[in-house]
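User: I'm writing a tutorial on reading structure tokens. Could you give me a worked example: one chain, its sequence, then its tokens, then a sentence or two explaining what the tokens reveal?
Assistant: Sure. Here is the example chain.
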Amino acid sequence: MRLRIDGPTACHAASFRSSAMARLRSCLRPAADLLAQYAEYHRDQRNIATHQVGIPLIVFALGVLLARPTLALDAGLPWALTPAWCVWVVVSLWYLTRGEPLLGFTVSAGIAALIALGQPLAAASLGTWLGLGLGCFTLGWLIQFVGHYYEGRRPAFVDDLIGLLVGPMFVTAEALFALGWKPGLQAAIERRAGPVVLHDLAARA
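And here are its predicted structure tokens:
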């Protein structure tokens, strides 16, 4: 006996599949497209500067919070498998397959360094571990929201959750641009998103 779905239920199912495919395609876009979209929300110099501090602080905080529970792989090794490293493997594969190998490697290495800094805190008391993790996470977001006050625009992830992954890639790309990496890519992003500016807060009032 074959079950047939008609009417509104079938329409909802088709809409869900279509929406899921659209989100998947959005996630798999090349780095240039993702960076340009993210940059549209980050054109004020002060906003970019706050993200250079806030995003690494958030990544570090997640490294701390995901440092528990631990699974010792070998008693002779000085490190253990934690949820943080499992997440790192997945996101690194994503960064490395966005079409910019150097950028993917650099952002993955940077995240690994921040996670490694946070792992020893798993051995601290529950209050210390949780307090530092949540404290750094909250502070990182507060710093970013200050930047978006200057920007006059809400964070990118509000409109597209992929922005949460693009953030570390964006601040890494900005650092590489400052070192002279791929000026053509930087110019292409600015053509789409506009130049970096200092918004006049008085004019906005």
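What the tokens reveal: The radius of gyration is 20 Å. The chain has one domain: 29-199.
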